[in-house]
Design brief:
This protein is mainly α and 311 residues long. 72% of the residues lie in helices and 0% in strands.
């Protein structure tokens, strides 16, 4: 095998699979929540606020205040960068892009994040891709194409914003992987959502939409609380997985969320997915199983390079 992936603990794989399950459920439930709030940015800010409160509370209970005070100044800058490139700006770009996107391709763009992470993780994190791993990535991509075909011609501002958000989230994975060598997952998760919330609220204030948060109905707040709680679970398990396993492994396993969402949607809608979509789900499952099996193989040492200055 030519340059196998650096393999972390099996715990990282299990956390990544748990994150995928949470993500699949969250996407399914968010489809109902957004219908009760006409402004996606308002819904996102409210949902992120719930997640921020949960994660900050957990971090404080675990002694994150003392940990934060002891962090080197460069690491603190990295933590702030995570809030910008992961917990705020991409959310605004993504939902604003969805509102104006015209091509069906837009729905496919964000699903390519695992490919961008793989491209960056090799030179920046020292992760290595062997033939089996590259093949598994190809299977995952083929599955995504079958599930959400990037059909349609056209590229506009909406597609550009969605691509920008996807690239920012991909960069976040690389930066977070480095930071997690010296920062606990609870602290980084709380910082991402807490500081990111400040930026999101500022965006609503500047755009004159902050008052809309106070007009949310009780039903809307119920969905906000549920999806916000799931978001907090997603972020902390995701960072926990990144701390233990290679970035390429974690983001690839997250693709399995599409299968969870598809099963839930089909079960409640009472409609069986088309054979093409089912084939896509099977390919995604095959890719996830292959990557998870290699990553969880015992006796492998973690080879990802880390920047000591960020530790």
């Amino acid at each position: 095998m030519n340059g196998p992936w650096a393999i972390g603990a099996r715990r990282g794989v299990l956390l990544a699979l748990a994150t995928a399950a949470i993500s699949g459920l969250s996407v399914y439930l968010n489809a109902f929540g957004v219908k009760l709030v006409s402004d996606a940015a308002v819904y996102t800010t409210a949902k992120n606020a719930v997640a921020a409160v949960v994660l900050v509370t957990i971090a404080l209970l675990l002694g994150a205040r003392h940990e934060a005070v002891a962090l080197p100044s460069r690491t603190r800058l990295g933590v702030v960068a995570i809030a910008v490139i992961g917990g705020s700006v991409p959310f605004v770009l993504f939902f604003s892009g969805l509102a104006v996107a015209t091509a069906p391709t837009a729905a496919f763009i964000q699903k390519t994040m695992f490919i961008w992470v793989a491209f960056m993780a090799v030179p920046l994190l020292g992760e290595r891709l062997g033939v089996l791993q590259v093949g598994a990535l190809g299977v995952l991509l083929a599955g995504q194409v079958l599930i959400a075909p990037p059909v349609g011609v056209g590229w506009g501002p909406g597609e550009t914003m969605i691509l920008a958000a996807t690239l920012l989230w991909s960069v976040e994975v690389v930066v977070a992987k480095r930071l997690l060598a010296g920062v606990s997952a609870p602290l980084l998760a709380a910082s991402r959502m807490g500081l990111g919330l400040v930026i999101l609220v500022g965006y609503l204030v500047v755009s004159g939409r902050i008052a809309a948060v106070g007009t949310l109905t009780p039903d809307a707040w119920l969905w906000v609380m549920v999806t916000g709680g799931l978001l907090s679970a997603y972020v902390i398990t995701w960072y926990g997985a990144l701390r233990e396993a290679p970035a390429t492994v974690v983001t690839s396993l997250l693709v399995g969320a599409a299968v969870i969402t598809g099963i839930l949607t089909a079960a409640t809608a009472g409609r069986t997915p088309s054979p093409t979509v089912v084939a896509g789900y099977l390919l995604v499952l095959a890719g996830v199983v292959a990557i998870g099996a290699v990553a969880a193989r015992p006796g492998r040492a973690l080879r990802a390079r880390r920047d000591p200055a960020l530790a």
